[in-house]
Amino acid sequence: MTRGSESTRGTGATRPTPTKARPARIQPARRIAFDVIRAVEESDAYANLLLPTRIERAALDAADAALATELTYGTLRMRGYYDAVIAIAAGRETDRIDPPILDVLRLGAHQLLSMRVAHHAAVDESVSLAREVGSQSATGFVNGVLRTITRTAPADWHDQVMATPRTDDERLGIEYSHPVWIVRAFRRALAAEGRELELEDLLDADNAAPRVSLVALPGLASTDDLPRSRPALYSPIGVVSEGGDPARWPVVQTGHARVQDEGSQLAALALSRARPAVPGERWLDLCAGPGGKAALLATEAATVGATLVANEILPVRAELVRKALAAIPDPPQVIVQDGTEIGAMLPEQFDRILVDAPCTGLGALRRRPEARWRKQPRDVAELATLQLRLLESGLSALKPGGILAYVTCSPHLAETRGIVDEVLKGHGDTVTRLDTAAVLSAVTVTPLDLGESTGHVQLWPHRHGTDAMFICLLQKAG
Asked: Lower CB density within 10 Å: C or N end of the chain?
């Protein structure tokens, strides 16, 4: 360990010398899950990027790969709730437990409280992990805490934990394992639609494994080329996998189809199909990394004789975009520029622009559960400043009569309606909102349940089965 054992941390006592790790056979799936969780906590790694790589490197079979996935994502999603249980069982707050040992406990708690894993297996494997990353006293500590958890039924633990919150938002935050500030932001966003009563459904949906959606890139593949799948509910070019690893499908290996959330598909299609395109149009993806929406827009543009330019501010992300576009014949140009300066550099150059702005990512907590613990309220204000500048830049780069799609993967009002309203205030009648709901209703296979919204579309995990994408189409006068 790096900070001393749990029995002495913060007390000033002499740290015991860590014992030499004894050989222990830890199941590969648990080892991978722990390593990924540790990397998320220690190095800000992204579980959705690191986990598949570790599974492939270890050559896990399907059963072990599924176990590693459940252990990793289940632990990350419900971390807040498990911390509440661990604090009671350990008799101390979790910030007094060394981080590696706390991750061992979280992983063990997930198995004991939410999975059908034999208690002895969950405890023994956790103790073996603790032996590798901690001292002898830490090993005994893990054994004691987890055995305490086993002596109380999960339902009774729930009752104990839920006896502590003081407000409804705190109760929901613990029960559904979301920071309270996110619970409040979601409540406000739903209330703006008159759907505040759906809050628990939304929080619950964030803790469910999302379906695997794929898109067949127009002109390169069709949905018929995607095996073991069924048509997507909304996207006319999407499917939902019914099993197996899509990465092994030939059409995915060629890059002609991609794993892509249906909400992201609809965000791109809202722009590309807002009105019929004409040959020679120039389109811009202002913040294109990592390239998923850019690939869809590029193939949509190619089918009508338009061209796409993809921009990224960071060379490393621009390279990701190039890789995403490599399978497209005559791939689009990728430029490396600060998106906030594109409007001044290339004024009124583009017929259609996608501003998929950097955001908190609160709309994708199903896929990136660690984001709920990584983001802070102060991040919203910082990002909102950037979002405003990017949207202004995009409007400057838009031709008169052109269409811009402002998109975020967040339902936070300060990142969605607030940004659009603020920008429109400064443009008078020169920029107007289009009826985004009407545009998408002409695109989707099944009507979207959008309530009364027209000037924008807010998708939701619990209502649409997509990420919580915000989509607003704007048109420049001319």
From this structure: C
